[in-house]
Amino acid sequence: MVNLYWKEVVNLTVFSNEDEAEHVRKIFQWKLEGLGNYIIAKKLIESKVPTRQNSNWRGVTVDGIIKNKIYKGIREWNKDDLENYFEVNLDKYIIDPELWDKVNKVYKENIKNVGKKQQFNYLLDDILYCGKCGQKYFGKKRVQSTDSSYRCRGMVKFANHVCRDNRGVNIEKMDTFVIKHLFENKSLKELLINAPKNEGELSVLRQNLADLTKKKDAEIKNKNKLYKLLSNPDLEYDDQLINDYTKSKNKLGKLTDEINELSQKIAEVGNLKRNDLTKTLIESYTKDIDFGILKKLVNSLIERIEIDYDRKPSSHGGVFQFKIKYKNFEESSLFMSKSTLYEYFWIGYNRTQSITPEDLEEDREMEKGILSYKFKINSEEDYLNYLKENSLELKDEENPWSKNFIGNEISTSMNEKIIFTKEELINVN
Q1: Mean pLDDT over each residue of the chain, to the nearest integer
Q2: What pLDDT is recorded for position 236?
Q3: Residue ranges in 231-319 assigned as alpha helix (H)
Q4: In terms of CB atoms within 10 Å, which end of the chain has fewer, N or C?
């Protein structure tokens, strides 16, 4: 802090040069009148008032004087050490304590209000992802500009990022597209409310839950055994035993968390009322709906939207691709749009994996047949060796010999459009 114009003596009494003290009083008076720090600094420079170190006056210097309690006769000690901080009342002051308090109160209130940014609503910032790097998109709306868009965080942070060729999307256009797709499109509503429950995934999830439960039961027995050993006075300070007990407790905690998460997933996937709930959510939308409710509806229906952009010369100015994954469904949709973003072509509606046990087994045998015919792979050992030899990543859900195999994706051509004009854009702010 700035201790301008003050001289300290051994008994903590202080005195000041009266001319210098007058400048401090002017600073407080100007502040009370509503002048900003930089304007006050400019006035002091124009008046050729010297600073303690013979440098130019700056806004931060004025700020230091305004906040310094020594000018109201209080000396602060150990300001950077809260535990040892204390104050000493001096027998002199330059600024009346009541005036000092009044100025600082007004100053703090002004700081809260100065530069306060206008708050905007961003409908899709929780569900938009970059199709190239996987990072989230964020909304950036400008008050006096039409350049308001959702953009990839990675592209903004790093100049040579992997998704540098991707593009942001206009906020109002993207919001309008999603609202029209979810709440005004009859085809989507019919597809979702009639979508079959994923029995294949449920079967896998339930088996995983049973396996985790067995592990948890075994770990509980292990922890109890270690606890009994620690109860022995001869072993209670055994470092290895204490370490093993701590590890067992931590492992048990992780297993419990995994079981809770898996149980929640099973509840979501196996929800018999899922389709009815989806119908209710879609039909809850009205044009005068509150923003908070609208955002909850969107987040309840969509898990994520991946955005990709093709800049190739043949694409006539660029083409966007939007992959929409619906929440608690294995279904997704693929849309394409020109860079103007007023016309969206619904290319396909996809099911990412088998739904029934019969479909799953059919896909499993088909995949094994293809691998045998194309690559002479006739066993899981052959499959794993092939991946290793070709430096390919093992994905358990794609391995037809694995219990976690999910089956093949099925696509349905939609051939529908969502079109709107500039006048039809929806502004949620």
Answers
A1: 82
A2: 63
A3: 239-269, 274-283, 291-301
A4: N
